[in-house]
Amino acid sequence: MKWLLELLLPPRLRCAICGEQSEVNVCAPCKADMAAFQHLRTTGRLGYSSSAKTIALLPYNGRVRKVIHRLKFSNSPSIARALAQAFAEAEVLPFAAVDLVTAVPMHRARYLERGYNQAELLARELATLQKLPFRQVLTRTRATPPQNTLGRVARARNVAGAFAAREDLTGRRILLVDDVYTTGNTVSACAEALYQAKAQDVVIAVVAMSLAPGQV
Length: 216
Known about the structure:
The chain is α/β, with parallel strands linked by helices. Helix content is 41%, strand content 16%. The chain has helices at 2-8, 28-42, 62-73, 77-90, 108-114, 118-130, 152-159, 185-196, and strands at 54-59, 100-103, 138-140, 163-165, 173-181, 201-209.
């Protein structure tokens, strides 16, 4: 009987960010939180001077952490699709100035273990939604220990030189996608590889950004 009720009366949508019932993809409280976070970033109050070209929807807190955990481990394209729509609704990404969407790559061994790359899922959905080409133009040149197992200094050494572009990117404007920005070492190393391949510009898009103690 339950399946018949769900067929006749489908469940309401849930917010892509907090998971609460919502008639729209991103509920009003989460939209307000996104706007407040963008204001903090644009006014320079978060102190990320090295991440001028990094755009994040929200701080990496409890509810967003849960969404990203599901994206990483549930192999659900619907989550990536909803988050891509959240980016579109937030109107924070310069899609008109993007030629190509790509993702932070995963080493082949880890890809085979997990079965997919969550950053690539999100990047593909963003590209499809905005009618932009997606191509995985980066590769990992070596396996690296997970960044969350290392200290801040070791993280930078861990990913230094660990990425390379697969092709010449002369003049291309790239949107580089990942799930979370913590210290920024991984995306910075990827961006450096893109610039070494002569990309004209690189903008980094992440769902969430970790904040230092004492920051909002």
